[in-house]
Amino acid sequence: MTASIIDGKAFAEKVRAGVAADVSALKAKHGVTPGLAVVIVGEDPASQVYVKNKVKQTADTGMNSFHFELPADTSEADLLARVEALNADPAVNGILVQLPLPKQIDEAKVIAAIDPAKDVDGFHVVNSGLLATGGRGLVPCTPLGCLLMLQDALGDLSGLKAVVVGRSNIVGKPMAQLLLDANCTVTIAHSRTKDLPGEVKAADIVVAAVGRPEMIKGDWIKPGATVIDVGINRIAAPEKGEGKTRLVGDVAYDEAATVAGRITPVPGGVGPMTIACLLRNTVTATCRQHRLDPKAI
C-alpha cells in the first residue's frame, strides 16, 4: 500500500480563496474590512519568517494588516499596553501576539489580556472553555486546519477511532475536543501512555503532535489509517553536506507512507493550513463583532 498524500499547501490555497471571497463580500455588502494585528517581540528568525508570511497573506486576501515589531527588551507592561490599545481599536478585529516571547514577559498574562472576541489564535481561556463545553468560540488554528483536512479527505468522521499523540493546550487538547465534537471515539496519548504503539495501531485517525522527530514508526500505523503529522523538527542531514539540516515530522514518513491510507507530508502538510485558518478565524471574528452570520455574508 502507498498512502495518498494530503496536500496541505493546495488545500490552504482553497481556504484562502474562500477567505478572500468572504472579505470581498463583507466590503461590498456591509462596508466592513477585516483587520488583523500581528505583534512580534524580538528577532527570533523562525518567528520573523512566520510573521512575514502572515502579514503578506493577510494583505493578499484583501484584509487590513497591522504589523508591530517590538524590541527584545520590551517590558511586559509595554506589551500589555499595546494589546489593550488593539483591543480598543475598532479597525482591528483579530489580534495575534507571536510566541515565544522573551523571558521577561509572562506569556499567559499576555494571552489573558487579549479580548476573547479578537483572540484569533484561540488560546484565551474563554475560547478554550467554549471549545470544551460545545460553545461558539474561536478555535486554535492548527487543530482547526487538521480537522478541515480530515473532513475533506474522509467526509463524515462519525464513529472513527482517533488517537492524538500529544497533550499540549495549543494542539493536543483542542484537537481531541474537535474530533470528539465530530463524533469520533478519541484517545489522547502521550509520553507516559502504556503501550503507545498499540494505542496508535488501533486508530483509524492518528494526529501526531508530540514534538519528537520521527517518533511514530511505520509499524505503529493501522493499515489504511489516516495520519496527520503536526510535528516540525529540524534534524541533521549529513547526506546534504556538513552542517546541513532537513525538516521532518513526528512520524517516520517513509515507513508510514507504505502502510497508511492517507498521510500529510512535512513540510507541505499541516503548516500551510495554520495561517489559512488564522485568516479564516479573523473573518469569523469580524462577522461576530458586527453581528453577521459568517455562513451568510
Automatic annotation (TrEMBL):
<dbReference type="GO" id="GO:0004488">
    <property type="term" value="F:methylenetetrahydrofolate dehydrogenase (NADP+) activity"/>
</dbReference>
<keyword id="KW-0560">Oxidoreductase</keyword>
<keyword id="KW-0511">Multifunctional enzyme</keyword>
<feature type="binding site">
    <location>
        <position position="232"/>
    </location>
    <ligand>
        <name>NADP(+)</name>
    </ligand>
</feature>
<dbReference type="GO" id="GO:0009086">
    <property type="term" value="P:methionine biosynthetic process"/>
</dbReference>
<comment type="subunit">
    <text>Homodimer.</text>
</comment>
<dbReference type="GO" id="GO:0005829">
    <property type="term" value="C:cytosol"/>
</dbReference>
<keyword id="KW-0486">Methionine biosynthesis</keyword>
<keyword id="KW-0378">Hydrolase</keyword>
<dbReference type="Pfam" id="PF02882">
    <property type="entry name" value="THF_DHG_CYH_C"/>
</dbReference>
<keyword id="KW-0658">Purine biosynthesis</keyword>
<dbReference type="GO" id="GO:0000105">
    <property type="term" value="P:L-histidine biosynthetic process"/>
</dbReference>
<protein>
    <recommendedName>
        <fullName>Bifunctional protein FolD</fullName>
        <ecNumber>1.5.1.5</ecNumber>
        <ecNumber>3.5.4.9</ecNumber>
    </recommendedName>
</protein>
<feature type="domain" description="Tetrahydrofolate dehydrogenase/cyclohydrolase NAD(P)-binding">
    <location>
        <begin position="140"/>
        <end position="289"/>
    </location>
</feature>
<feature type="binding site">
    <location>
        <begin position="166"/>
        <end position="168"/>
    </location>
    <ligand>
        <name>NADP(+)</name>
    </ligand>
</feature>
<dbReference type="GO" id="GO:0004477">
    <property type="term" value="F:methenyltetrahydrofolate cyclohydrolase activity"/>
</dbReference>
<dbReference type="InterPro" id="IPR036291">
    <property type="entry name" value="NAD(P)-bd_dom_sf"/>
</dbReference>
<comment type="similarity">
    <text>Belongs to the tetrahydrofolate dehydrogenase/cyclohydrolase family.</text>
</comment>
<keyword id="KW-0521">NADP</keyword>
<keyword id="KW-0554">One-carbon metabolism</keyword>
<dbReference type="InterPro" id="IPR020867">
    <property type="entry name" value="THF_DH/CycHdrlase_CS"/>
</dbReference>
<dbReference type="Pfam" id="PF00763">
    <property type="entry name" value="THF_DHG_CYH"/>
</dbReference>
<dbReference type="GO" id="GO:0035999">
    <property type="term" value="P:tetrahydrofolate interconversion"/>
</dbReference>
<keyword id="KW-0368">Histidine biosynthesis</keyword>
<dbReference type="InterPro" id="IPR000672">
    <property type="entry name" value="THF_DH/CycHdrlase"/>
</dbReference>
<dbReference type="InterPro" id="IPR046346">
    <property type="entry name" value="Aminoacid_DH-like_N_sf"/>
</dbReference>
<keyword id="KW-0028">Amino-acid biosynthesis</keyword>
<dbReference type="GO" id="GO:0006164">
    <property type="term" value="P:purine nucleotide biosynthetic process"/>
</dbReference>
<feature type="domain" description="Tetrahydrofolate dehydrogenase/cyclohydrolase catalytic">
    <location>
        <begin position="6"/>
        <end position="121"/>
    </location>
</feature>
<comment type="pathway">
    <text>One-carbon metabolism; tetrahydrofolate interconversion.</text>
</comment>
<dbReference type="InterPro" id="IPR020630">
    <property type="entry name" value="THF_DH/CycHdrlase_cat_dom"/>
</dbReference>
<comment type="function">
    <text>Catalyzes the oxidation of 5,10-methylenetetrahydrofolate to 5,10-methenyltetrahydrofolate and then the hydrolysis of 5,10-methenyltetrahydrofolate to 10-formyltetrahydrofolate.</text>
</comment>
<dbReference type="InterPro" id="IPR020631">
    <property type="entry name" value="THF_DH/CycHdrlase_NAD-bd_dom"/>
</dbReference>
